[in-house]
Amino acid sequence: MSANRPFAIVTGASTGIGLELARCCALGGFDLLVVADEPAIEDAAAQVRSSGAHVEALTADLATLEGVDQLYEAIKGRQVDALLANAGRGLGRAFLDQDFAKARHVIDTNITGTTYLIHKIGNDMRRRNAGKILITGSIAGFIPGSFQAIYNGSKAFLNSFSFALREELKDTGITVTCLMPGATDTEFFRRADMMDTDVGTTEKDDPAKVAEDGFKAMMSGAGDVVSGLKNKVQSAAANVIPAGVLAGQHRKMAEPGSAKD
Known about the structure:
By secondary structure, the chain is an alpha/beta fold.
């Protein structure tokens, strides 16, 4: 790691938006610690190193406090200039049909682990009055998620949390940015068991473009960014359409068996 290069942490960086955020950081001059809960993080780190950055990889389960502590220990007291809190999990199907252990894992990953990590690193940033935090929320957080109730609820929390934290830190040298993508072409829908749904099988956004939008917003200190025109329209509409109507619309996208033949 070079003393002249800033240091960033990207969670959930083995695939998808997280991997692309790590690439953006490397091209933007950062050295990196990339983290995920699967061994594929080693391959991801090797890909990002090709951009010329020093990249360390860590396998840790950020759904647990112990996993977050493991990440924090891996920092080894270094100054974290940017934290890109991207780790997340999804889960499809009706809430009462879900295995509750899997539902809890979504909550523990998306909410508990994310906020615990931000609390630890955010306090370090506050002590030196400098740093950038990017939180991957979602436009799903604006929509009652029939057949994705836990996931959408967790993203509603993250969207709200990011705006609140930004306000609390507005007079400091720390910026908080919320990246709010729509459906993106990643492993998310396969892992969430949603490949028999309309949203799981339709065309999706490019994760590289989503990550680029998020990285640029973070670097400029913007409060939030919705990636993609279609998603901007959808998020704006969600502010005026009644919640019950939104829930019905979401059913059409996410109910199992809704995939078009």
